[in-house]
Amino acid sequence: MKSVLFFRNSVLFFPQIQCLPFYFSVCCVLWSNTILSSKNASKSMNS
User: Fold this and answer.
1) What is the predicted pLDDT for the residue at 47?
2) Dist. CA 32–CA 24, nearest whole Å
3) How far, in Å, CA of 34 to CA of 11, rounded?
4) Is there a domain that residue 17 lies in?
5) φ, ψ (nearest 5 deg) of residue 14
6) Residues near 34 by Cβ (< 8 Å), separated by ≥ 6?
7) 1 vs 5: CA distance, rounded Å
8) How many structural domains comprise the chain?
9) Which of 10, 29, 36, 45 has fewest C-beta within 10 Å?
10) Does residue 20 form part of some domain?
11) What pLDDT, on the 0 to 100 scale, is given for residue 1?
12) Where are the transmembrane segments (predicted)?
């Protein structure tokens, strides 16, 4: 019975592990976009 629960938990958990790189890349893209936009904003303020 425990093995069945463990199997079900691993099945539920495995797709999340597969999605982690996707979430990580999305976070990196958003983070770089905010940094670039803040840099551009400071550039436009200076000029």
Assistant:
1) 62
2) 12
3) 35
4) yes
5) -60, -45
6) none
7) 7
8) 1
9) 45
10) yes
11) 67
12) 12-36
On whether residue 46 sits in a domain, the answer given is no
What residue type is assigned to position 44 of the chain?
S
Give residue 37's identity as a one-letter amino acid code.
S
| Residue span of the structural domain in which 21 resides | 1-40
Tell whether 19 is covered by a domain. yes
Distance CA 3, CA 13 (A): 15
Find tokens 């199997």 and name the residue: 7
Cα(44)–Cα(21) distance, integer angstroms: 34
Per-residue HEC secondary structure of the chain comes to CHHHHHHHHHHHHHHHHHHHHHHHHHHHHHHHHHHHHHHHHHHHHHC
